[in-house]
Specification:
With 219 residues, the chain is of the alpha/beta class. The protein has helices spanning 16-26, 48-55, 75-81, 96-106, 150-165, 182-188, 197-200, 204-218; strands at 3-6, 30-36, 61-67, 85-89, 109-114, 132-136, 170-174, 192-195. Strands 1-8-7-6-5-4-3-2 form an 8-stranded parallel β-sheet. Helix 3 (75-81) links the parallel strand 3 (61-67) and strand 4 (85-89). Helix 2 (48-55) runs parallel beside helix 3, helix 5 (150-165) packs parallel to helix 6 (182-188) and helix 6 (182-188) packs parallel to helix 8 (204-218). Bound molecules: D-xylitol-5-phosphate and zinc ion. Zinc ion is lined by residues 7, 32, 34, 65, 174, 194.
């Protein structure tokens, strides 16, 4: 089943609660929440207080994407704040396996993300344990970038590898995803689509509906 996960990084923060309610009503499947620390990635976004505050206003699945160095230090706090699933970056963890084990222990959906230049082989130690692999389709750090076409090849390679080893994780893509390319990434093997700009710029209700229709046809 294909899923749409709007990224609130592109939302209007003066109307955050309202816009989250709108994507939920329009049928979005998960809410993608980008946390940036200014070290692992050049920019800084927001952290636990924002998640905690929107948690009380939304019943959506909170998909927290941690673009922070050594995320293991904060996993418990993000779960307490309201995360349902957490994705860490393979490049940000000195011990990826124990970071994933910690996520399992906390009982949230465990995801691992790889940047455009990171090979899928870094997943080897954890691929039997995780629930999700997030293939970045731009360099993480900012919304509104253009999708890097080579990353679609990586999605294909990963989907093929997943078949070979019989792993159960889903494949998520993030960065530059829009109506014009979502079908292409779906055909490559991705099932969960993050979209910031393409959802929150313009008519949100209309954007989510158009996305849902496009992925329904591809399903
Ligand atoms: C980028 C973030 C993305 C970002 C996507 O580092 O991980 O989730 O919000 O934004 P768009 O869809 O605008 O590329
Ligand atoms: Zn993200």
């Amino acid at each position: 089943m294909f899923k749409l996960a709007p990224s609130i990084l592109a939302a209007d923060f003066t109307r955050l609660g309202e816009q989250i309610a709108l994507v939920e009503k329009a049928g979005a499947d998960e809410l993608h929440i980008d946390v940036m620390d200014g070290i692992f990635v050049p920019s800084i976004s927001f952290g636990m207080p924002v998640i905690q505050s929107i948690r009380s206003a939304s019943g959506m699945f909170f998909d927290v994407h941690l673009m922070i160095t050594e995320p293991v230090r904060y996993l418990e706090e993000f779960v307490k704040a309201g995360a349902d699933g957490i994705t860490v970056h393979a490049e940000a963890c000195s011990d990826l396996r124990s970071t994933v084990m910690k996520l399992k222990e906390l009982g949230v959906r465990a995801g691992v993300s790889i940047k455009p230049n990171t090979p899928i082989s870094v997943l080897e130690d954890v691929e039997a344990l995780i629930d999700r692999v997030l293939v970045m389709t731009v360099e993480p750090g900012f919304g509104g970038q253009k999708l890097i076409p080579e990353c679609i090849e990586k999605v294909k390679e990963l989907a093929e590898h997943r078949r070979e080893i019989g792993a159960g994780y889903d494949i998520q893509v993030d960065g530059g995803i829009g109506i014009s390319n979502v079908r292409r990434v779906a055909e490559a093997g991705a099932e969960v689509f993050v979209a910031g700009t393409a959802v929150f710029c313009g008519d949100i209700l209309q954007n989510v509906k158009a996305f849902k229709e496009e992925i329904r046809v591809a399903d």
